[in-house]
Amino acid sequence: MQTVILLTKPALKSVEAAYKGALVQPAPANSLFQAKNNGVTITAYASGKVLFQGKYHEEEAKRFAKLSSVQPKSKKSPSARQITTTENKGKKPRTKLPADFANWGVIGSDEVGAGAYFGPLTTAAVYVPRSKVAELRKLGFADSKTLTDQKIQELAPYILKNLPYHIVNLTPDFYNQKQQSGQNVVAMKALSHNFTHNQVLAKLEGHDQPDAILVDQFVQESSYFRYLNQNQQQLPNVKTYFITKGESEHVAVAAASVLARYVELQTMNELSKEAGMTLPIGAGKEADRKAALLMNQGKNLSHFAKLHFANTKKAEQLR
Ligand code: MN
Question: What residues flank ion ligand 1 with Cβ within 5 A?
Answer without folding.
Answer: 110, 216
